[in-house]
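Need residues for this backbone.
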């Protein structure tokens, strides 16, 4: 039990660190290249690397007919819609303010899970979700200024969170028979192919393939698209709702990265929010490993 708990915690923390770095890396990438083209390249490269490893080294099979449909749905919501909309939103808001939106995922995943599973969310989970969202709001409060966001950016960010939450719950409902690396590789590649036509339509040609572009791209491909997503899929298979509580740490790490690398505000509000977020995580993860008396 203790070993399982330790692995779950380490997996969650590492996921939070890697996943929260995506906004900052994306901001740097957007200094050199237009958003849809940037993420199309990212997804196709990441998917190709994963599938090369899966098919050539691990000798995994190709998806069957129904599995193509499942992968397409998952890739559409988890990659194409979520990250496609997200990268566009980053043009209108700072990396730090995106940390606030990530807090919407636990609530959305909880609500969507109740629809998919017919599952009633316990009062303890509601408490942890509420405390976590308050903590993220407190930590992000200094960023809530007109110069840091626009209504267009916030709307796009909200839509991306809805797509991500739906994709997460959908993944947890499918009885996958494919290897996890194959699932990740195919859904990322499919997501890139779905975005490619839009990248072509809105292509401007105002791009620089410089050191900044390549560093951002490689970081988003390897630690984020490959590393963090693999960790997220492991967490989701434990429980889609409780695994989502690790998303509360992403805003905290995101604020730290934004402050250090992008010089965005880091104040005592951040410390207060961090304490509330860690409290929410403690409540939620303790519930995860506490036997249900009604079962």
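Answer:
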């Amino acid at each position: 039990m203790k070993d399982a708990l330790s692995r779950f915690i380490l997996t969650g923390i590492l996921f939070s660190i890697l996943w929260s770095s995506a906004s900052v890396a994306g901001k740097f990438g957007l200094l050199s290249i237009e958003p849809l083209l940037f993420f199309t390249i990212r997804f196709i490269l990441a998917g190709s690397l994963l599938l090369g490893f899966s098919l050539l080294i691990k000798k995994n099979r190709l998806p069957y007919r129904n599995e193509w449909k499942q992968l397409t749905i998952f890739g559409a919501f988890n990659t194409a819609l979520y990250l496609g909309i997200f990268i566009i939103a980053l043009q209108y808001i700072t990396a730090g303010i995106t940390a606030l939106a990530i807090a919407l995922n636990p609530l959305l995943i909880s609500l969507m899970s109740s629809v998919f599973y017919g599952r009633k969310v316990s009062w303890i989970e509601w408490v942890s979700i509420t405390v976590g969202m308050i903590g993220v709001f407190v930590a992000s409060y200094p960023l809530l200024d007109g110069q840091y966001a626009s209504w267009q950016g916030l709307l796009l960010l909200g839509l991306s969170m809805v797509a991500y939450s739906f994709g997460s719950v959908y993944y947890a409902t499918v009885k996958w028979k494919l290897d996890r690396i194959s699932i990740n590789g195919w859904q990322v590649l499919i997501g890139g192919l779905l975005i490619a036509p839009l990248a072509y339509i809105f292509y401007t040609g105002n791009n620089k393939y410089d050191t900044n572009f390549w560093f951002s791209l490689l970081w988003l491909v390897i630690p984020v698209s490959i590393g963090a997503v693999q960790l997220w899929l492991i967490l989701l298979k434990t429980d889609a709702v409780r695994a989502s509580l690790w998303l509360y740490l992403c805003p905290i790490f995101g604020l730290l990265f934004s402050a250090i690398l992008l010089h965005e505000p880091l104040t005592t509000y951040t410390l207060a929010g961090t304490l509330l977020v860690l409290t929410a995580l403690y409540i939620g993860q303790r519930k995860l490993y506490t036997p249900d008396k009604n079962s």
